[in-house]
User: What shape does this take?
Amino acid sequence: MAIIYNGDIAVVLDVQHRTPGNLRAFVQASIRSIKNGKSSDVRFSSTEKVEVIPMMTKKMEFSYKDGVDFVFSDPDTYETITLAPELVGDAKNYLTENASATVTFVDDKAVLLEMPASVILAVTDAPEGIRGDSANNVMKPATVETGITVQVPLFIKTGEKIKIDTRTGKYMERA
Assistant: This one.
């Protein structure tokens, strides 16, 4: 959700409700300011009121990289938006052409990019595994089309497609 905090619009990233011992309950929240992009941890007492701002989410597709920025397009209207690398974050490791993602807007400004739980990427380089060491689950490094290296089982070869968990960056299965 998005709230107004100190006269600025901020996106709430994480919330924890705490009740320590014999003290009053409070809410610990991690928020990111839309104006300057800085994150901070703030405490709200249980009686404090905050003003919630409506947010809108859209399914968008990654089009191309323009210098350091990332350009996404709406598959329905073909409108494009440009996102800064700070906003994209680690999602850049899983973006391929026409990859879908969910972009969250507050006041017509993109504030959050969410990738699907898993993506399918092609393996561009997977060295041969060492034979004979099959008593346990042996993994080898493999490079995928976006340039990141993922630990995969020995049977994965160059050119195959694999499914990767975008939250952990780990191999899930063959695709």
Notes: Residues 85-88 form the longest helix (4 residues). The two ends are 34 Å apart (CA to CA).
